[in-house]
Design a protein that fits this description.
Rossmann fold, 9 helices, 15% strand
Length: 279
């Protein structure tokens, strides 16, 4: 099949590469992979029009499993790489993917700044509240009393990071949460996030069945948010602060214009560039 042919209607499976995923059986990331391919098929995106940037961790293997442009960045750096790509190639659909450790710990400041810049791209975080690849340490989103790890026998004893609240406060223009067990709803959220201008944050509850087998129950615990999404940050903040961490659906759709620098400006002489740095 010629994937570059504009007349070929691609199916979800056509966006998968020939590389077989190596996640643990039952890992929620399988569902997210399927959801991404479903979203791209729904949007009728050409593979050569899409780039997916990842960081480190189990979920950051995602670029290898997709038949699109991909880049595996270093610890916590998926978002600055994706930002640079999007502002220099605004014609591309740019996705970033990673986990709660990569995105909210070493990459935490990049997360804040990406929300604040509001570049037109979509960030998909697979949150399992644990460092799965490095054998089960508590992550930024692990609850304070989780004492199942030998590495934190008494639990982390600190409040978990609240990614949706932080995203809203930092300026994200679209916020949604989904469960990896519901691939259709996750695909819909990803597609909606791609369509919405600005920085879109998709928070996916994606169980780690190896180090947190109790998370198999998540698919029974998620429930729709009590009200439809809002475009009012104050209303969204009130709702998210009352979230039990299992609200799913689109929670906020803002209307801030995306940041996109002028790519047509040129510098004729070095003195023009120097002038911009004078104090």
């Amino acid at each position: 099949m010629n994937l570059a042919c504009p007349h070929v209607a691609l199916k979800a499976k056509d966006y998968k590469s020939t590389t077989k995923p190596v996640w643990c059986p039952g890992c929620g990331d399988y569902g997210v992979l399927l959801s991404i391919t479903k979203a791209m098929a729904e949007l009728e995106l050409k593979p050569e029009q899409v780039a997916l940037i990842s960081g480190i961790g189990c979920s950051s293997r995602m670029p290898a499993y997709l038949n699109v442009y991909g880049f595996h960045a270093v610890h916590g750096r998926a978002l600055p790489v994706a930002t640079g790509l999007k502002v220099s190639r605004p014609d591309l659909t740019v996705l970033a993917a990673g986990g709660d450790g990569d995105g909210f710990s070493i990459g935490g400041n990049h997360f804040l700044q990406a929300c604040r810049r509001n570049v037109d791209m979509t960030y998909i975080v697979m949150d399992n509240q644990v460092y799965g690849m490095t054998k089960g340490q508590a992550s930024p989103t692990t609850e304070a009393n989780w004492d199942k790890s030998k590495l934190t026998p008494g639990g982390p004893k600190i409040n978990p990071f609240l990614p949706l609240v932080i995203a809203l406060a930092s300026g994200a223009n679209f916020i949604a949460r989904t469960s990896s067990s519901d691939t259709n709803a996750t695909a819909k959220a990803i597609a909606e996030g791609i369509r919405h201008p600005g920085f879109s944050f998709i928070h996916v509850l994606s169980p780690c069945v190896t180090y947190r087998p109790e998370q198999r129950q998540w698919k029974k615990m998620v429930h729709p948010a009590p009200r439809e999404f809002t475009d009012d940050p104050a209303v969204a903040a009130h709702r998210l602060m009352g979230d039990d961490n299992f609200y799913v659906g689109t929670l906020y759709k803002g209307n801030r214009p995306p940041y996109q620098p002028d790519l047509n400006s040129t510098v004729e002489h070095l003195s023009e560039l120097e002038a911009g740095f004078r104090v």
